[in-house]
Amino acid sequence: MLAVLLAGASAKEAAPAAADPVLEERMLAVASELRCLVCQNQTIADSHADLAVDLRNQVREMLRKGQSEREIIDYMTARYGDFVLYRPPVKATTALLWYGPGLLLVGGLAVLWLVLRRRSRMAPENFDPDEPDLPEASKASEDAAPPAPPAQ
Amino acid sequence: MKRWQFIVPGVLFAVLVLFLVRGLNLDPREVPSPLIGKPAPAFTLPRLDDPTQKIGREDLLGKVWMLNVWASWCVACREEHPLLVEYSRRKSVPVYGLNYKDGRAEAQRWLANFGNPYDASISDTDGRVGIDFGVYGVPETFVIDKRGVVRFKQIGPITAEALRDKIEPLLKQLNADNPA
Prior knowledge:
With 152 residues, chain A is mostly helical. Helix content of chain A is 50%, strand content 0%. In chain A, helix 2 packs across helix 3. Helix content of chain B is 38%, strand content 19%. In chain B, the strands form 2 sheets. Chain B has a 5-stranded mixed sheet. A two-stranded antiparallel ribbon of chain B has the order 1-2. The A-B interface holds A 37-38, 40, 50-51, 54-55, 58, 77-84, 142-143, 146 and B 1-2, 5, 28-29, 31-35, 41, 101, 126-127, 131-134, 136-137.
């Protein structure tokens, strides 16, 4: 009795499309690479928008016909442009997007290293908090710690 | 040399501000269409008014025309509709409607209520032709030239400014062009 009830409950939850779970999984794998243009921050695998449902069906159909992931992605970018790719492609136009943060990090570290090195060479008196930062006190180099309030 | 301490961060800041200004002026909702400059996708769809008749891409070669994607369930379409109706009265360029993912009865009722600016509407009930055109938000409007090449896409409702500043000059230019 319980088994019958449980069987009935689980059958109701299964969506008709999941009749082929392998296909479904492949579809979701491809769909996770495509952006939902309506919600924009979701993939068409996650999105509930009508367009996402339509595009998932399209992907499913194309997989059923035996098309490869590459072909499906090309199909979508031909119609929607590069923005439909959830991960922006690495191209000349997106180079700044991909490498920018890395470059900034390296640049920041380089500046930090230079500043620390310069400071390590300055006389310890420059870092004495009790002495006022008068222009004539910066004997090590002109790039000593900047004067606090402008002391003309 | 103390000045460098102010100049360098100042310049960096200015660069960042430029990026911000540029970025904030971009609208991510406006996804540029990869179809511009390419032939319009092939389609053959039944007419809304007479489903036994079909209209295909080839039927529209040789003239400049606009394809307006609309639906009775689309609220934003009502914004641009009066403009389209008014435009169609001038009879300058044919406007065809792509009735996207809609029911025939609802669509016809909507046109009866709000006016019919279209030379004809065709029914894209399952949205497949919409996908081929890269439709992701209704309304959208395409300008297609005499050779069947997509020349312009308006995302969202057509505004008076878009019509005046972008679409009409383009239509004039395309109409003057006479392919062999």
